[in-house]
Design brief:
Shape: globular
Radius of gyration: 23 Å
Number of strands: 18
Largest sheet: 8 strands, antiparallel
Helix content: 25-40%
Bound molecules: flavin-adenine dinucleotide
Structural class: alpha+beta
Number of helices: 15
CATH topology of the domain at 109-227: Uridine Diphospho-n-acetylenolpyruvylglucosamine Reductase, domain 3
CATH architecture of the domain at 109-227: 2-Layer Sandwich
Strand content: 15-25%
Oligomer: single chain
């Protein structure tokens, strides 16, 4: 949605230098490299545009990643790591060209250490495949982004991805024990450990979680596992309004019930799927919660949750088929909204759970001001809301940009954040200043420079351009 900032031009080496770079890469990898037909590698799921690299490499080992980085350093070539390209913030887009480093050939599941509750995995393994492999060993890797079946483990770590179960289990970073990482210089580092505990030195493995490919390339991960949960109970609670649903969330948590997921749909989200899930939603309902509990005492707990929620209507799944129908209510929202409107942008702001109703009201007010439609749903337990703006005309983009800026400002005003899952990447970098003060951004730039003095790793991401002051001022940001 944003123009490429002028201070980050496309890398433009002389042709002879580019040829020399390509020869050096092919020699290091001992196979031809890809220097055209980048259509699939130029885009991601952010919708932020198409940016072709000059060359793409598909390393198969840590040693090959290190060799590529040494060559990139020598030529001062930008390097953009890429997993499956499912990211929604433009992190994997090679906005300045250079080398696109696709990690999809590093896809070995090295070890599941069942007794010690960890697994060692290469970054290109699909997250869903990894989850299923550990489940077969009676272990569980809880982070569950909706993209699990097509995103990579490395991409999930680089974005610190999460999903509905983060409310109980935390996010991806809570399961990263250690990793092998390659710096921009080509230096290989072993970070972290294989034990659940460990406090020696700075936690640099944690720093790399959510670093969006800007600090190092992750080439192997040691991930913590939990026992496979015994038993699951799922319920759909319907309410006459969003406030009643949000209050129910607070009461459920107050009652020391700890669901794995607490998903909320606002009236617009609920209306979008009403016809698709006939019979599931009470006709009078204007909001609903999907509550799932895991563990051997979960039936008693979900009945207690139903009592404290004071829902106007309640369905507790009697079997797996009904459980799937309940989850259909949530899973179909995005599809239904896409079918109903030509354009849709889905945000991932977070606010404290008690501010969820006010945030939903704020989104509706912003949408009304800009003449857009809006629907909000998401992980009410931890206040992570997917606020969707919906429109049909190409000419509405300026309104959408204003609506997004106002939404981020509202989230920050509620002591929340502009992104809880998708990362800053390209599309939110101009808004980081709404949430973080200049000294904090400056410190992070210094951290980046320590890891990557030439600034070749995923340049143009995460940090605001000089335009930030203007945009933050327009949006009324705290730190403009
Ligand atoms: C339909 C859909 C649903 C989604 N649902 C969720 C959700 O529920 N929760 C959620 O959190 N996200 C969600 N996402 C966003 C996205 O899937 C996740 O962020 C995912 O983790 C990205 O993984 P990827 O392999 O596609 O990474 P990419 O998009 O390829 O890359 C993402 C970032 O990671 C960096 N990167 C990738 N691999 C490495 C590596 N090995 N070393 C260093 N940096 C690396 C890239 O440079 C980039 O900055 C969804 C996306 C879609 C399209």
């Amino acid at each position: 949605m944003f123009d490429l900032p002028a201070e980050w031009p496309r890398w433009a080496p002389p042709p002879a230098t580019l040829d020399a770079l390509c020869l050096a890469l092919a020699a290091a990898l001992k196979r031809p490299i890809q220097s055209q037909d980048f259509a699939d590698l130029s885009r991601d799921e952010s919708g932020a545009g198409s940016f072709a690299p000059h060359v793409a490499v598909f390393p198969e080992s840590t040693a090959e990643v290190a060799a590529v980085m040494r060559i990139a350093s020598q030529y001062s070539a930008p390097v953009t790591p890429r997993g499956a390209g499912s990211g929604k913030s433009g992190g994997a887009l090679p906005v300045h060209g250079g080398i696109l480093m696709a990690m999809t050939e590093m896809r070995r599941l090295v070890q599941i250490a069942r007794a010690d509750h960890y697994a060692i995995v290469e970054p290109g393994v699909l997250l869903g495949d990894f989850q299923r492999a550990v489940l077969a060993e009676e272990r569980c890797f809880p982070p569950d982004p909706a993209s699990a079946d097509f995103c990579t483990v490395g991409g999930a770590v680089a974005e610190n991805a999460a999903g509905p179960r983060a409310f109980k289990y935390g996010t991806t970073k809570d399961y990263v024990l250690g990793m092998t990482a390659v710096l921009a210089s080509g230096e290989v580092l072993e970070l972290g450990r294989r034990t659940q505990k460990g406090v020696a030195g700075y936690d640099l493995a944690a720093l790399l979680c959510g670093s969006e490919g800007t600090l190092a390339v992750i080439t192997e991960l040691t991930l913590g596992l939990v026992p496979r949960p015994l038993g699951v109970e799922t319920a759909l609670f319907c309410f006459k309004d969003v406030r009643a649903a949000a209050s129910a969330v607070v009461r459920i948590v107050d009652a020391a019930i700890h669901p794995a997921t607490l998903e909320l749909l606002d009236p617009a989200a609920l209306d979008s799927v009403r016809a698709d899930v006939a019979g599931m939603i009470d006709p009078a309902a204007r909001a609903c919660l999907i509550v799932e509990l895991e563990g051997d005492a979960s039936l008693a707990a979900i009945e207690r949750a139903a009592a404290v929620a004071r829902a106007d209507a309640c369905i507790i799944a009697a079997d797996d088929a009904q459980r799937r129908r309940i989850w259909d209510v949530r899973k179909r929202v995005s599809i239904a909204l896409k079918q109903a409107y030509a354009h849709k942008v889905s945000e991932d702001i977070v606010v404290p759970p008690s501010a969820v109703p006010q945030m939903i009201d704020a989104v509706q007010a912003i949408a009304a001001t800009e003449g857009l439609a809006a629907a909000t749903y998401g992980h009410a337990g931890d206040g992570n809301l997917h606020t969707n703006y919906l429109w049909n005309s190409e000419t509405d983009h300026a309104r959408v940009d204003r609506a997004l800026a106002a939404t981020y400002r509202a989230a920050v005003a509620f002591h929340g954040t502009i992104t809880g899952e998708h990362g800053v990447g390209l599309v939110k970098r101009e808004y980081l200043g709404l949430e973080q003060a200049p000294p904090l951004i400056a410190l992070q730039r210094r951290v980046k420079a320590t890891f990557d003095p030439q600034g070749i790793l995923n340049p143009g991401k995460m940090f605001p351009s000089e335009r930030n002051a203007v945009i933050a001022a327009q949006a009324g940001g705290q730190h403009a």
